[in-house]
Amino acid sequence: MSGKLYLVPTPIGNLGDISRRMADTMAEVDFLAAEDTRVTVKLLNHLGLKKPMVSYHRHNFATAGPAIVQRLLAGESCALVTDAGTPAISDPGEDLVALCAQHEIEVEAIPGPCALICALSASGLPTARFTFEGFLPQNKKNRRAHLDSLRNEQRTMIFYEAPHKLEDTLEDFVAVFGPQRRIALCRELTKLHEEVVRTTLAQAVEDCTNRPPRGEYVLVVEGAEEAPVEQADPQMALQRVEQLRGEGLSLKEACAKAAEEFGTKKRQLYDMSLGK
Ligand code: SAM
Questions:
Q1: Cα 82 to ligand 1 centroid, rounded to whole Å
Q2: 231 CA to middle of ligand 1, Å?
């Protein structure tokens, strides 16, 4: 019988966020897999626990992962903990979970602190539909290409960012999303100097120049307004013209109606219909 992997979230800055279930799980498992054993030992000391630990981080996951899986297959139980927040979100925990899934090892996720959810809920921006983008690529060209792919994204977008890269990232946001797009800069969440600044991208860049950013940030960016259809797919508006013509409307009337429905220019549709 194989053991179980528990995903144990840890506080992102406030020890008061440790739950009974997190503490009980860490106390009960056979061993912990920790991103940084020095960080986790402080948490264990706080809880008055002593546990065997192995390291599991971005530099050793390719070898450490299979070793943990072997122990789980042999029947041991393990709690995966990262430096802060929910394991497997923007950290190599996702590889360990995938490996467990491949080996049909049970994985139990314990709910708890997660920077992106904490930021989204406090952002004041629409929360019904969102996309989590994690850290942007480091390379400037890849970063811009990634942002370009989000140009027409209508869902609220969430990014993790390091303070020393914040200004460049905000400038890229302005270039791609425009200066008036709203943003919530969520800084040092759950900590003493917690701050949520709700502003525009242009103002955020200016603030950044005046006050060098410090601490940990989650950036929550408003989604795009509905994309004009002529940009998304002019052929669809044209098909609608054909359909309306089939229903007996004149070309002029069909273009006017389709233009209204698709938010496009009737002249443009008219010209396209005539093959101009
Ligand atoms: N797995 C963690 C989670 O989802 O909560 C995140 C791990 S990721 C390696 C670390 C990033 O999360 C930081 O660079 C920052 O963008 C964000 N973050 C973590 N703690 C934060 C806090 N207290 N306030 C704001 N952002 C935070």
A1: 11
A2: 36
CATH code for the domain in which residue 89 is found: 3.40.1010.10
Burial group, residue 129, by CB count within 10 angstroms (0-12, 13-18, 19+): exposed
**Which of 113, 138, 168 delimits the end of a domain?**
113
CB of 189 within 6 A of ligand 1: the answer is yes
C-alpha pair distances (Å), 230 with each of 60, 189, 195: 49, 41, 40
**Do residue 192 and residue 91 come from a single domain?**
no
Nearest CA to ligand 1 atom 11: 160
Residues 175 and 210 in one domain: yes
Query: CA 271, 274, 276: angle at the middle one, nearest 5?
Result: 55
Average pLDDT value for the chain: 94
pLDDT at 114 over 60: yes
CA 2 to ligand 1 center in whole angstroms? 32
- Cβ(158) to ligand 1 under 6 A? no
Q: 217-269: per-residue pLDDT in tens? A: 999 999 999 865 556 577 888 888 998 898 898 999 998 888 887 878 888 88
136, 156: one domain? yes
pTM above 0.85, yes or no: no
Is 229 inside any structural domain?
no
Answer yes or no: is the C-beta of 220 below 6 A from any ligand 1 atom.
no
